[in-house]
Amino acid sequence: MEETGTGRRTIRTPRGAGLAGVIFALLLAAAMVLVRLGIPEGAEAAAAPGFTDSVRRDALRAALALVPFAGIFFLWFIGAIRAHVGAGEDKFLATVFLGSGLVFTATMFGAAAAASAVLVVDHPADLPPVPGTWDFGRHFAFTLMTEYAMRMAAVFVSSMSIIGRRLRVLPRWLTIVGLLTALTLLFASSNLPWAELVFPAWSLLLGVHILTVNRGARTRTDPA
């Protein structure tokens, strides 16, 4: 980062960091939507236990294919931000930021593995689905995603928002959006369907903001 004469710092993160955030947001949002479509909840799940619909199976397979790539771009995003926050970062908040990001990634992979197990075990070749296996796997996958992964995402968003505000690298409106996103993920993600989509939405805003600031900085420093 670079400090101006007024004491305000500007983001010196490379364009790849913002691009990684945008790609991660799009991949994660697509995976979440496909998981929601592939594994139903509530009365819909009770009415048709198991993967009796080939469209649902295909949606879940597509989601599982996207999750590893979303995790890769997320780790790249974390690394690029930390590297360019530099010595100005608060060690405590930076540790919380990094730790929550890593735990979120691991939990997201665990939820994907649980969903994959539901797909494989509940739909074996030439055998009828087992309702108990379907219910257990479905609840396990959703619990990992909405109860644990999203709460780690809330910690990640809140710590990033506080770091950005303290170092003045994020605008006030994006800090407020980040804190509202963290509250939603912390208290509503397990009870409100589709609430988890606020995390990729926030990541998309952050990635676009980094790209915009980076482009503006390049324009101002261009000798031409």
From TrEMBL:
Membrane-spanning residues where? 17-39, 59-80, 92-119, 139-157, 169-188, 194-213
Q: Which UniProt keywords apply?
A: Membrane, Transmembrane, Transmembrane helix
Give the protein name, as stated in the record: DUF4386 family protein
Natural source organism: Streptomyces cinerochromogenes
